[in-house]
Amino acid sequence: MTRLATKMLLLGGLAGLAVAGAAGAGTVDHDVPALVVHYHGDALDTDSGAQALYRLLARAAEEVCPFAYDTHIVSASVYKCRRDALSAAVNKIHNQRLAALHAAHTSKSG
Questions:
Q1: How far apart, in whole angstroms, are the C-alpha atoms of residue 99 and residue 90?
Q2: How far is C-alpha 13 from the chain's CA centre?
Q3: Which pTM value belongs to this model?
Q4: Mean pLDDT, residues 88-93
């Protein structure tokens, strides 16, 4: 199995995330928070594998777009950052099964 990685990079504030390709591809700005999500490419061959990867990507988006701990309130800008991060990661992976799952989740959340 080939081990792939997607780097999620916070572009700042409302700018959201851009996703650099597989590990080692491209140059990374070291001033930008980053999180690497590892997954097996064949995980996307099944619905359960796509769902597991989607959950990993969603948790990664929560880590790179945290809420202010002193208020315990998740602001609209944090939700937007997370939504943009997740969309960017799904788009970068470019898999129909994962994209359909993301579209279903996005339509539910508004």
A1: 6
A2: 16
A3: 0.67
A4: 93
